[in-house]
Amino acid sequence: MVIEPALIARWRAAAASSDAQSTIARLHDEIAAQVRAQRPLCVSSGRCCGFEAHGHRLYLTGLETAWTWARLACQPCVNDVEAAITAGTCPFLAGGCSVHGVRPPGCRIYFCDRDPAGWQSALAERCHQEVRSLHDRLDVPYRYAEWRSLLAAFAAAEAAS
Ligand code: SF4
User: Fold this and answer.
1) Which residues 6+ apart lie within 8 Å of 72 measured at CB?
2) Hey, which bits of the chain come out as E strands?
3) To pair with 29 at 20 to 30 A between CA atoms, which of 40, 81, 110, 127?
4) How far apart are CA 149 and CA 129, in angstroms?
5) Tens of pLDDT, residues 19-57
């Protein structure tokens, strides 16, 4: 998928809006409350971020990526993202998650613990619909893509600016 720099600029502006900041903060609070209530088992923190080894992929929207991107202390360059793709991991995996406080909603919801009640899928779907509505309210195009492909596009746009 080609993601134009102009689209990234729109997501970044939208992510800085008060609506995006309050909505995403509220979703993070709701996810944290649900995780506290469900107490899923995490046997090896960070293992699920080794996407190839774990058989897992992280998908999210452009707006969510822009929210995290704006809060990174050190933004990855295209080479960093490509190295992670080659390694089959997330570029922020360094022992554990190196961007824990600003990780996307999908990272906050996913646990490899078995989910017999389906709470993770239900919560992920509800959060996704809220973020989708946020795109509509802020009048920014919606895209849903694999995390590293979005990061690569953001890094390329940053390098070109
Ligand atoms: S952002 Fe952090 S929690 Fe999410 S996949 Fe990357 S290393 Fe894992």
Assistant:
1) 99, 102
2) 59-61, 93-94, 96-97, 144-146
3) 81
4) 21
5) 999 999 999 999 999 999 988 877 666 778 888 888 888
For 24-70, the DSSP string reads HHHHHHHHHHHHHHH----SSTTGGGSHHHHT---EEEHHHHHHHHH
Structurally, the chain folds into a number of domains equal to: 1
93 C-alpha to ligand 1 centroid (Å): 6
The answer to whether the CB of 112 is under 6 A from ligand 1 is: no
Q: Is 103 in the pocket of ligand 1 (CB under 6 A)?
A: yes
- The boundaries of the domain holding residue 87 are 5-160
Most confident of 38-52, 53-67, 103-117: 53-67
Strand partners, 93: 97
Residue at 68: amino acid letter: T
pTM assigned to the model: 0.93
Q: Which residues of 9-35 are buried (b: 16+ CB within 10 A; e: fewer)?
A: ebbbebbeeeebeebbeebbebbeebb
Residue 25 token pair: 């903060």
